[in-house]
Design brief:
- The protein has 253 residues and is α+β, with helices and mostly antiparallel strands.
- The chain folds into 2 domains: 61 residues, Winged helix-like DNA-binding domain superfamily/Winged helix DNA-binding domain (Arc Repressor Mutant, subunit A); 168 residues, GAF domain (Beta-Lactamase).
- The protein has 9 helices and 9 strands.
- A 6-stranded antiparallel β-sheet has the order 6-5-4-9-8-7, with helices on both faces. Strands 1-3-2 form a 3-stranded antiparallel β-sheet.
- The N and C termini lie far apart (46 Å).
């Protein structure tokens, strides 16, 4: 059967988008053309079309990365994803049990995207952040996810500058590596004033059925409400809840 006109170009464009992975988040034109066994002219033409639609973008040095248009499409798809449906009742329970705001955050490139949240009943700290994106290294959920990413991906992330969001933001790669090891041991991460001064959040990673980690849940509020003992108890509660969500998704680790 003869393919419909334009099918080949669509398939090639999809192959380009699928070439961007956690292990290889950026490509130069020549390398991408070689990987996909396309000539450079065809690859450049497709990249230009994808760039005009916001699906890819060019950074310093001319390397291509996925663009913001992908996040828009991903957001639409994720709104129908089982993860949100599975996690929602657990977020509601966390908010009731703790009185704090509970959220579900997703890995979106080099950032965390707040995908769903249940606002806690307390007046102080009960402000919606739904749809907001933050750097991985400055959030508890970002650090919780980083702790389980492949080593090559972590090395890539830590090879870049870690901009300070507040005076408490961790900008030393060695210190962040130490924290990631501790997170793997404890099962939860703490962000204390690293994203916003006087805000404390505890987060724990969610494992997909195959063990991959691309999401995390958290509970947080004003730091004044979190003594060291309450922070530990919150961390354990969030960790145990993340394990339950992961089990619902088919993870048996």
């Amino acid at each position: 059967m003869k393919p419909y006109p334009g099918t080949q170009s669509v398939l090639r464009a999809l192959a380009i988008l699928q070439a961007f992975t956690d292990e290889r988040p950026s490509w130069r034109l020549a390398d991408l053309a070689r990987e996909l066994e396309l000539n450079k002219t065809t690859t450049y033409r497709l990249l230009t079309a994808l760039e005009s639609a916001g699906m890819v973008s060019r950074g310093e040095g001319g390397a291509y990365r996925l663009g913001p248009g992908i996040l828009t499409l991903a957001g639409r798809a994720l709104r129908q994803n089982d993860l949100r449906q599975v996690a929602r009742p657990y977020l509601e329970q966390l908010a009731r049990d703790t009185g704090e705001t509970a959220s579900l955050d997703l890995l979106a490139g080099d950032e965390i995207l707040i995908f769903d949240e249940v606002i806690g009943p307390r007046l102080v700290g009960s402000v919606s952040s739904l749809g907001t994106r933050h750097p991985l290294h400055a959030t508890s959920t970002g650090k919780a996810i980083m702790a389980y990413l492949p080593a090559a991906r972590v090395n890539e992330l830590l090879a870049r500058p870690l901009p300070p969001i507040t005076p408490a933001t961790i900008t030393d790669p060695a210190e962040l590596r130490r924290q990631l090891a501790q997170i793997r041991q404890d099962g939860y991460a703490v962000g204390n004033g690293e994203l916003e001064e006087d805000l404390l959040v505890v987060g724990a990673a969610i494992h997909q059925f195959d063990g991959r980690v691309t999401a995390a849940i958290s509970v947080g509020g004003p730091a004044a409400r979190f003594s060291p003992e309450r922070t530990r108890r919150m961390g354990e509660l969030v960790r145990d809840t993340a394990v339950k969500i992961s089990a619902r998704l088919g993870w048996s680790g």
